[in-house]
Amino acid sequence: MNPTNHYGATAARKHGKPGREVRPKSITIDIHSHVAVPAAAEFIKPHLDLATIPLAHFATPETKALNQKQEADRRSRISQYDERLKDMDEQGVDMQLIMPPPPQCYYTVSVEYAVPATRMVNDGIAQYVAGKPDRFVALGTVPLQDGAEAAKELERGMQTLGFKGAQILTNVGGKELSDPAFAPFWAKAEALGALVVIHPNGFTQAQRLTHFYFNNVIGNPFDTTVALHYLIFDGVLERHPNLKILAVHGGGYLGGYSGRIDHAWGARSDARGSLPKPPTEYLKRVYVDTVVFTPHQLRYLIEVFGADHVLMGTDYPYDMADSDPIGHLGVSNLDASTMAAVAGGNAKKLLGL
Question: Over the stretch 160-177, which tens digit does the pLDDT of each residue have?
Answer without folding.
Answer: 999 999 999 999 999 999
